[in-house]
């Protein structure tokens, strides 16, 4: 019997790619998403890309804070596990609107965990983030590093991690894997699904992509006086398909009797600077990306990349793709979908 997995936020960027890998891996996927920052078109395209597995995907437009709707769903479907992506994720917006972030991310997660407990579904893969390392004193970041978050978005991830640890301490029947992502980029090689942020992108690559397709005049590079090889910040960029496969590996690991509440980094273990990433994208796209240099952004760390040894050892997972493939796939998606899942009008 195929396992049935509930995927919250499954219409989003990482969620949609993971749902596709689940379907191709023979799982049944039930997606709930409030479509706050995602598109139903993504779900339709995932179904098409999944071919004969497409019918194993069902979608419900739902907010996790709507507990009665969630209870109704759990009453009608038996879930083997939950992959929890749903949440707001823009760092800058979280600083400006902290209550919105705490309300959405924490209350939604607590409602989900309560309903899971009530229906005896105690297997969870949670989408955490490298932001829980704050400004690491050294690199690479290992899972044992001290945790601290520099903004409300990061704090919601940190609080949810602590909630998960507390739940497991209280009831060892729970099996929880916390995945700390580094910087997801790229798109499915078909160019059919990819990242489609609303408004002004917060992350480097969607911004570069919008400059490349002519939606924005130039890329602003924040800080070129860091103590790095070219003065720009260094991050660990990971292909979104590698990241999606990391979730499948985590899901398989949940059946290991020794798993309690465990945490894994998902990254490549390599740092790439902003200018190196832009150069790789220019090579992949054949487009020149005009740049404007600006001062450092408050809250930006200089160098952050992952130690991936634990995921390699215990999840038998490692990233397969480098920055050239990330940029080729990102450009393939951008050139086919310059306005993401929308139209020029909807992107205005």
Give a written overview of the molecule:
The chain has 348 residues and is α/β, with parallel strands linked by helices. Helix content is 40%, strand content 17%. It contains twelve helices and 13 strands. The chain has a seven-stranded parallel β-sheet with strand order 3-2-1-4-5-6-11, with helices on both faces. Strands 7-10 form a two-stranded parallel ribbon. A two-stranded parallel ribbon has the order 8-13. Strand 1, helix 1 (13-24) and strand 2 form a beta-alpha-beta unit. Helix 3 (67-76) runs parallel beside helix 5 (98-118) and helix 7 runs parallel beside helix 9 (274-285). The longest helix is centred in the first third of the chain and has 21 residues, at 98-118. It is globular.
Supply the key terms.
348 residues, alpha/beta, 7-stranded parallel beta sheet, two-stranded parallel ribbon, 12 helices, 13 strands, 17% strand, globular
Give the topology, please.
Layout: E1 4-8, H1 13-24, E2 28-33, H2 40-49, E3 57-61, H3 67-76, E4 81-84, H4 91-96, H5 98-118, E5 123-129, H6 152-170, E6 175-181, E7 183-185, H7 204-212, E8 219-222, E9 234-235, E10 237-239, H8 240-253, E11 261-266, E12 272-273, H9 274-285, E13 291-294, H10 309-315, H11 323-336, H12 344-347
Parallel strand pairs: 1-2, 1-4, 2-3, 4-5, 5-6, 6-11, 7-10, 8-13
Antiparallel strand pairs: 9-12
Helix pairs in contact: 1-2, 1-8, 3-5, 5-6, 7-9, 9-11
Provide a quick synopsis of the model:
The protein has 348 residues and is of the alpha/beta class. The protein has helices at residues 13-24, 40-49, 67-76, 91-96, 98-118, 152-170, 204-212, 240-253, 274-285, 309-315, 323-336, 344-347; strands at 4-8, 28-33, 57-61, 81-84, 123-129, 175-181, 183-185, 219-222, 234-235, 237-239, 261-266, 272-273, 291-294.
